[in-house]
Design goal:
single chain; alpha/beta; eight-stranded parallel β-barrel; four-stranded antiparallel beta sheet
């Protein structure tokens, strides 16, 4: 898997198909049957695996990542039988099935949390509970330390007071998603049971969400502030127990005749101090590969970001690369705004597929699908029966609009594609050999038979920089195979010199030469 091409599917909007015994919303949202119905298309892409974002029973505050029951398929997506059919269908096509597992946090509506509030064993310490460090002059309890949270409607503190239990609980993200206490070995055993449930059901591996946040300092010490005023993230994240739990999961995964694969989300956005601890975890963990978020920026940062990532994992053995996912603006919009072209879109994916390690394509990347121009015009709130999309207004919400197979297939979804996105539908590209879709498909095929499929080095050419030009030599580990890769994203012909030879690269094209 560590050099596989993985196709991320966001089940809320990927595809809907009839036939499930549990089908309450009749096409307002995607479902598991819909993913199964797209197996021929996914197989056409020539990818090695799919990764399915959460489809478990959830509370709709975290778009699937606030889980109420870890082993129950949410009724909006179908049934366990539907999931088994999905796995069987993809396996028959030689495609592995990975699913998201969210072990850092869950929903406040999860029965575990409700019982933990009441201190019911064994759930009493399934979450991170800490006493107030004191009270302000108005009698309001003060959080135990300065640890921060992200995307939190209630503020930027990782702590929320629970009046019933008379303690604070920790949450790395929104207050509606309390952190599970990974420090607790009994809780870890419970999570391993959940992992075994899905492994036994037939999944080939997990994408593990938010693993940077597993565990915390047991003394709950304040993160110190450095001389630049930056909080040094050394106590709230990247703790040793998190690495321990990853290794426990991998030991379970390795107990199967065909070992299961673990792809851990380990994003390096926690400042230089927190990141330094994270690098150690990535290098020493027996986890298979890590999504480290290194390509979230623009093309101007591409060289620096790739070089930093390869310092963390030389030769790319533990790296997973992506330009897009469900939690960020679509790549073509992020990089070019309204000035992207289908040729640039295809070229971007061709660039991605040269990198050493595993690759993630997010649904629609292969089409060059942009964000919608007006997200509100994509909402059909009368069909949004679960009230998911009414307050969705961020750029990453725009990346979650319905996938475009043809002009009609997603028109009834509660968050459907806009008219501009529909132009990039599969049906409009599949028979055009020069389309983004077919160029990306061919790049996936070419990757399997080239040095790009091997672990190895990337050496960027050190010459005068030209706007929109990326040039490097891609080699395998022992340098017995080397390919010169020249990408010109600009609108004018570019010239690159290598080993005294001058190469002219036409606008919005790539050039490869084995050397």
């Amino acid at each position: 898997m560590c050099n596989d091409v993985i196709y991320e599917i966001y089940p809320l909007t990927f595809n809907y198909a009839k036939g499930s015994k549990r089908d309450p919303f009749q096409g307002a949202y995607g479902n598991l049957k819909g993913i199964t119905a797209m197996a021929d298309y996914v197989s056409f892409l020539q990818v090695d695996a799919i990764w399915i974002a959460p489809f478990f029973m959830w509370n709709q505050n975290g778009f699937g990542y606030d889980i109420i029951n870890y082993t129950k398929v949410d009724r909006m997506f179908g049934t366990e039988t539907d999931f088994k059919e999905l796995c069987d269908t993809y396996h028959k096509k030689g495609i592995k099935v990975y699913i998201d597992q969210v072990y850092n946090h869950c929903s406040e509506k999860n029965p575990w949390f409700q019982k933990s509030i009441k201190r019911e064993p064994p759930y009493t310490d399934y979450f991170v509970w800490v006493n107030a460090r004191g009270y302000d002059k108005n009698g309001k309890p003060l959080p135990p330390n300065n640890w921060p949270s992200k995307w939190d409607e209630a503020g930027d503190s990782a702590w929320t007071w629970n009046e019933e239990r008379k303690q604070f609980y920790m949450h790395s993200f929104d207050y509606t998603m309390p952190n599970l206490n990974i420090n607790n070995p009994e809780l870890r055993k419970e999570l391993l049971k959940i992992a075994k449930f899905w492994f036994d059901l037939g999944v080939d591996g997990f994408r593990l969400d938010a693993t940077t946040h597993y565990g915390c300092d047991l003394l709950y010490r304040n993160n110190p502030i450095d001389e630049e005023g930056e909080q040094m993230r050394i106590y709230d994240i990247n703790n040793a127990v998190g690495a321990t739990f990853l290794n426990e999961l991998k030991s379970l995964a390795n107990s199967y005749p065909e070992p299961k694969i673990l792809l851990a989300e380990y994003v390096f956005d926690k400042g230089k101090h927190g990141n330094a601890k994270g690098i150690k975890t990535v290098r020493e963990s027996i986890c298979d590969t890590f999504y480290i978020g290194s390509l979230r920026g623009n093309l101007e940062n591409f060289e620096a970001n790739v070089e930093k990532a390869l310092e963390i994992s030389p030769n790319g053995e533990k790296l997973n690369w992506a330009f897009s996912n469900h939690d960020m603006e679509r790549a073509v919009t992020r990089i070019w705004g309204q000035n992207f072209t289908p040729r640039k879109s295809a070229l971007l994916m061709e660039l991605l597929l040269t990198l050493p390690g595993s690759i993630c394509l997010y649904q629609g990347d292969e089409l060059g699908m942009p964000n919608p121009q007006d997200l509100n015009k994509c909402k059909n709130l009368r069909r949004d029966y679960r009230g998911i999309w009414s307050n969705a207004n961020s750029v990453w919400d725009g990346a979650r609009t319905g996938f475009c197979y043809d002009e009609k297939s997603h028109a009834k979804m509660a968050l459907h594609p806009d008219s501009e996105q529909v132009k990039y539908a599969v049906a409009n590209q599949k028979d055009d050999g020069t389309s983004t879709l077919n160029r990306v498909r061919q790049a996936i095929i070419n990757r399997k038979n080239s040095v790009f499929h091997e672990f190895g080095d990337i050496n960027f050419l050190k010459q005068e920089k030209q706007k929109g030009v990326i040039a490097f030599v891609r080699s395998n580990k022992d340098r017995t195979r080397q390919t010169l890769c020249l990408f010109n994203f600009s609108e004018v012909t570019a010239k690159v010199t290598y080993l005294n030879k001058v190469y002219q690269i036409a606008p919005e094209t790539a050039m490869y030469e084995n050397i």
